[in-house]
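Issue 218. Parser rejects a valid record. Input:
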Amino acid sequence: MNTTMRIELDTRHMPEGAPIVVACSGGGDSMALLHLVVREAARKGWEVSVAHFDHGIRTDSAEDADFVARRSGELGVPVVTERVAVPSARRGGESLEAAARRLRYGFLRRVMRQRGQGARVVTGHTADDQAETVALRLERKAGLRGLRGILPRRRDGIVRPLLRVRRRDLRAWLEREGIAWREDPTNRDLSIPRNLWRRRIEGLSEQMQGNLMGACDVLTTASRRLYPHLSGLAGWWAAREPSRALMPGEFLLESPRGCGHFSGLDHALLDAALKAAGADPRTVSRRLRRVLVQRLRPAAPASRQGGLYRAASGIWVESITEGLLFSTRADPHWDRGGGPVTSFPLGRALRETVGIDLPRGGRLTGSPLPPREGTREGIPGEPDGTSRVVVDASELPDVLRIRYPEGGDRMVPFGMQGRRRLKDLMREAGVPRLRRGRLPVMVSGREILWLGGVRASEASRADPASDRLVVLEFRMDGSRGGGYRDG
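Output the parser choked on:
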């Protein structure tokens, strides 16, 4: 081992004269980083400070904070410390490691903002950390986004200037310089996946370790260069006009077909769709990402269709035949009732075209239809009554009530006998669950005349010879037909 080697920082993302915040845990990597930054500070004009996050996981974590404060004081560097009891701050389903990482980076970003414009936070991640990260992500079947590994610079201003330096070389440098550091005993806990991979890598020969670090550097560099192009392709695909009409607040990510489909694109597509729907892809759990990517693939069996997932606050995702349907205005518990009610001026629609925007999206229009004596041919609504239906205003009140489906709603479908649940009719018509509470129900008294976009009822049957026929049409997005069948 060459103990006289010189350790150099990668300062490409650390502007001269910038405030530099060193994230220091007291361990060997971060202590080496602190001393290296301080030694370069005068030449680069950096304003150096230290940020220490006391995670409260170990009983002796306060000793780490004291150690960092003392060493920083000896170097004349100010310290900001925050203590959070991570075990009690975990979110539902979040691992202890994930919670500690989330809280630590939140603390570091706050400190960076306090230091002013142009500030950077530097962390002590090494080439060994990169190899462990790549191994973990390969094990978890990550796409191209994940294979970028630990980024040299994140968009939030966090920089990793030691990412191509080996951990063993940092330890040798510390020993040569007589710099003390703390050892975290949890690094020996093999129940933590990263520690297990660390042990496996350390068990390789020196040559194999070197080859692995080099291969990881090539892989992550290539992935970082390719991913923006792939992300652009995914954004273009996600922004295409979908084959199915959408309601306000909906976004359909259609499954890619043919040669354009491969694993890396799945994750890029999912990221593009989450952003389009208003969700931050970084906040979506790995488990949910795996499920959504699997359901996005065109080869997914039919049994995998129909899943409903909460991607973020107010954002739901449903797996449908075409791909993934995102909705920001849907209530999955649509059948509880109590939704908004509006009215439609049927009498006025006998004289002129009338249109109203519905409370939960879509538009309902009505217009007069001349009588068709002696034939019923061509009257919309009789074959299936999906996006268009004809009603006889002479048999109905001048104002019709429009509400939304409720649990227990039933009607006699046009051309059939016996009442059917609206829930069953929507399921048979392939209506996504996220949309079932957004389809209008036209009511006259206690009779349901029409479930907009799905089916007319026998109660809407019109006499083709009547001179008071009105054509009603429901359009989901105001421009395209909203039926689930050819209406």
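Fixed in the parser; the record now loads. The longest helix spans residues 206-239.
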